[in-house]
Amino acid sequence: MANFGINGFGRIGRNVLRAMTQKQVERIRAINDLTDTKTLAHLLKWDSVHGKFDGEIGHDEENIIVRGHKIKIFKERDPGNLPWKTLDVDVVLESTGFFTSRDKAELHISKGGARRVLISAPAKNPDATICIGINDDVYDPAKHTIVSSEVIPELKGKLNGGAFRVPTPDGSVTDFSAVLEKDATVEAINAAFNEAAADKRYKGVLEYSDEPLVSHDIIGNPHSCIFDSKLTIKLGNRFAKIVGWYDNEWGYSNRCVELLEMLGK
Ligand SMILES: NC(=O)c1ccc[n+]([C@@H]2O[C@H](COP(=O)([O-])OP(=O)(O)OC[C@H]3O[C@@H](n4cnc5c(N)ncnc54)[C@H](O)[C@@H]3O)[C@@H](O)[C@H]2O)c1
After folding, report:
1. What average pLDDT does this structure show over 97-113?
2. Which of 24, 54, 133, 192 has the fewest CB atoms within 10 Å, counting from its CB?
3. Helix, strand, or coil here: 125?
4. Residues 231, 189 share a domain
5. Do 54 and 85 reside in the same domain of the chain?
6. Is 28 in the pocket of ligand 1 (CB under 6 A)?
7. Is a pLDDT exceeding 80 seen at residue 167?
């Protein structure tokens, strides 16, 4: 059975290990990230999202120890320096987010001596992009050594989407899709909202943002809509989706105060 190596032990690297059975974990020969064994063991054990690791986690100078199984830790910035062959590693999970192009991911094979690489992201020039349950039948072991596990290229322009991470104690989003009467670009849609936000009619109500926001960032913002230009998407020339955030408690309460004043006049 194949042995594994992991390059990049962040959210995906650690969650991939967590998703494995102990028998699979025992086939992980080495992990590479940029920090020491103590920190990596701690991050694997304690996860604010998924909870405490189910099983004992330890470490020594060179390894993290997962339910008694020692996994050698490297601290190499250059993937070409990882001795996968010596460690008997067959398949490398490339989950740093940095080595997603073919020429970079290939270093695990050409220099490190692994047999295959799975890139945990959309990749540039992989041998194949494979989604389990969708097109996994295209896998050809004779041809595919560098594989991406993300969006299937054939769906480009046909399907688009986004993800919101919940729960959040406060903070809401309006996700609005429309078929437009006229063709429009993402830039034109964003420019229209930017212009509207500058109009005195929408002062204090509509805010335009070019920042990569998450729900927590808008808590305490008194506007009724914080238009998020980064999330505007289009499919074809006329189908558009826009997103506006709002603090459902604070924004609403601010409008209530204004209305109370108006009604009191
Ligand atoms: N987080 C998700 O929900 C998710 C889902 C699917 C795919 N992905 C993709 O997976 C990849 C990793 O995402 P993530 O969320 O795990 O990121 P992350 O930042 O949590 O993890 C990346 C890890 O790689 C390490 N790293 C950075 N440079 C390195 C180097 N030169 N050598 C070795 N290690 C290095 C970092 O220290 C970090 O621990 C990205 O391409 C991302 O798009 C993420």
Report:
1. 98
2. 133
3. coil
4. yes
5. yes
6. no
7. no
